[in-house]
Amino acid sequence: MNEDLIFHFDVDGSDFTSAGQASVQLKKNLRQLGISPDIIRRVSIAMYEGEINMVIHANGGEADVAVTETDITITLRDKGPGIKDIDLAMQEGFSTATDNIRSLGFGAGMGLPNMKRYSDSMEIDSVVGEGTVITMKINL
Amino acid sequence: MKICQIKDLLGAKVICGEDMMDRHVYSACGSDMMSDVLAYVKDQSVLLTGLVNSQVIRTAEMMDMVCIVFVRSKMPSEEMIELAKDSGIALLATDKRLYEACGKLYEGGLRGNGVKK
Ligand SMILES: Nc1ncnc2c1ncn2[C@@H]1O[C@H](COP(=O)(O)OP(=O)(O)O)[C@@H](O)[C@H]1O
Ligand SMILES: [Mg+2]
User: Fold this and answer.
1) What are A9-33's pLDDT values in tens digits?
2) Which among A112, A118, A133, A136 is the best mutation to test ligand 1's pocket, defined by most ligand atoms within 8 Å of the CB?
3) Which of B32, B33, B34, B41 to mutate to probe the A interface, most A CBs <10 Å?
4) Domain spans of chain B, in order of start
5) Is B16 helix (H, G, I), strand (E, B) or coil?
6) Is the dihedral of CA A59, A114, A48, A73 positive or negative?
7) How many domains does chain A have?
8) Of A44, A105, A133, B34, which one is least surrounded by beta carbons within 10 A?
């Protein structure tokens, strides 16, 4: 890799069935770059949980994934309701998801903790009523 | 264990991935909550679940899993089957319930190997 690469994805918030398409695509892109499977798996899971969150909590958003010589940075931006108490949201098991979402297999309150677990650093910038920006970095 | 042994132990039907029956798998997990599955990054090759929607296939794809077993006779949609074929994931269906299906495979030697990073 001689120059930095950026992949951009729009995440449709209207359809739970298609949620995760960006993560599947990203995984394909990373495979083509010859990045190690362990790293790809961590990036993919972090991205997937973030993508699902944008769909179920924020009515969609966008994702930019930058690949450099040293790391992969995922930036997720949405114009959703924002997160009021980030410390609380980060706790395993905390979720505001509806029973309907839970019956679809998500809403266990493990998404943000998983994202943190799989990235080497994670930052959440959120303003209630405006939206959320989450940045995750995974070192190569 | 080979995927064809899972098929035999569970009396399962192969929905797609006939050509993968000789693939070896070394660990499995059973859950209806996808985020719980995603919390264990260590190599898991088989997912047993009673949940049937596209996110099950994508979760398995994110985890590099090679086989999904749907329990309680649940059948995936055409769209899900297409997704699974695209990702090289074999789909099986059994009439057993989750607890029993997991028990049979565990007894057969397929273990959990779940390690949280
Ligand atoms: N992009 C987002 N916009 C608004 N709220 C969010 C967003 N992501 C997460 N949250 C809030 O943080 C909580 C915890 O998120 P998470 O750990 O992924 O669990 P879950 O998605 O299962 O509820 C969510 O229930 C929701 O209230
Ligand atoms: Mg979540």
Assistant:
1) 999 999 999 999 999 999 999 999 9
2) A112
3) B34
4) 3-107
5) strand
6) positive
7) 1
8) A133
Q: Which domain holds residue A31?
A: 5-139
Q: Return the beta strands (E) in chain A as ranges.
A: 5-12, 60-67, 71-78, 121-127, 131-139
For residue A116, what is the domain's CATH number?
3.30.565.10
* Interval B28-87: pLDDT, tens: 999 999 988 998 867 779 999 999 999 999 999 999 999 999 999 999 999 999 999 999
Query: Quick one: pLDDT band at residue B114, thresholds 50, 70, 90?
Result: low
Which regions of chain A are under pLDDT 70? 1-3
- Going by C-alpha positions, the residue among A103, A24, A22, A111 that lies closest to residue B84 is A24
DSSP string, B32-98: S-HHHHHT--S---EEEES--SHHHHHHHHHTT--EEEE-TT----HHHHHHHHHHT-EEEE-SS-H
Burial of B76 per CB tally in 10 Å (0-12, 13-18, 19+): buried
The Cα–Cα gap between A118 and B41 comes to 9
Question: Does the C-beta of A29 come closer than 6 Å to ligand 1?
Answer: no
Q: B3-107 has which fold?
A: 3.40.1390
**Taking CB atoms and an 8 Å limit, are B36 and A110 in contact across chains?**
yes
Statement: the pTM of the whole predicted model exceeds 0.80: yes
